[in-house]
Amino acid sequence: MEPRNCGCLLVVGLLLELTFCANGNLDGCLLLIQPTTVVVRRGDPVSVNCTVSGDHVGIGWEASEGSVDMVTDVQFITWSLDKLTEWNIRPRCFGNFLNGTQPFQCEEVLRLIQYKPPDSVSTSAVNHMDLMVEGEEYQLQCEVQNIAPVQNLTVKWYKGGTLENQTSYDDLTKTPVNVSSTLLITPTSADDGAQYSCVAELELGPEGPQPPPSIKSDPLNITVHYKPRITGCLDHVELREGVTLDTLVSCRAKGNPSPMVTWYSVQSEFSSSTPLTRKDSGQYTLIAGNAHGTANHTLEIEVLYKPLITECPNSMEMREGAPLDTVTCRAEGNPSPMVT
């Protein structure tokens, strides 16, 4: 037989000294705590029943707050608080029994999880680098203030509505703490104007509130500077005589800060506000630049113009039966006109 750790129990009122064994009844403890696990928000009320399923000589609750003295004439006993204020509280229900003539005691400890949502959740760029440059690495930081328990905390990072990353913690501290989470990003031009935020979420299990308590930070808007890109530009473009290069809406330069755009024709600068003439057909180069670099695109511009009749006399004499193609009238235009 296994040795048992025995001691003395004085049952008040019976004036009877009993020997009890702390390792309990061989058939198991007859106490049942309902619910077995309780999740309580800091400062909220709490109430838990302890039921005994057989004869006993006294049951009670021991706790640093709300202890219940041992009683003998009930089958259940309730531990309750109007306001839970102690972080390290460990309530236990105990019962005293007789196994034949041999007294013994057993206990059930309540699994009590206290939680406290954070006072604040904030997102910032380390070193105040809200203005970023494409291709460089930056660090974002999420600060979570005064939250518990940290081992149940998950910090989730979002760009817009897309989950980017998440962080969990293995610190077993029960009392409120301040924690931080970092996110490394390498922004592209597509991230200009993006919003980053973090969410502090307490995953408290099936006994906890559903959905899990969470607080989201205000969004952090980032500005990304990047060198120009020229988009929508074809290799060959037809424009009507009299229009300007400013009307070439399909050929645009985009950058941050906004780039300076310059047109060149035969290595000479050409004003984009100058109306095109039929003599301006040829090769052009668009150059866009800002503080972060330049971009260029070369294309062929063909100027279209309406027909013009040339080399045609006001009157002439022809022999009867002579063909009209002997007339020296000519017409030019782009595209080449049909003469009838």
UniProtKB/TrEMBL annotation:
Keyword Signal in annotation: yes
Domain Ig-like: 118-216, 228-302, 307-340
SUPFAM superfamilies assigned to the protein according to its UniProt record, in alphabetical order: Immunoglobulin (SSF48726)
InterPro entries assigned: ICAM_VCAM, Ig-like_dom, Ig-like_dom_sf, Ig-like_fold, Ig_sub
Domain of life: Eukaryota
Keywords attached to this entry: Signal
Gene Ontology molecular function terms on file: integrin binding
GO BP annotation list: cell adhesion
Pfam families with a match to the protein in the record: Ig_3
Signal peptide bounds: 1-21
PANTHER family recorded: INTERCELLULAR ADHESION MOLECULE, INTERCELLULAR ADHESION MOLECULE 5
Name of the protein: Ig-like domain-containing protein
Organism: Synaphobranchus kaupii (Kaup's arrowtooth eel)
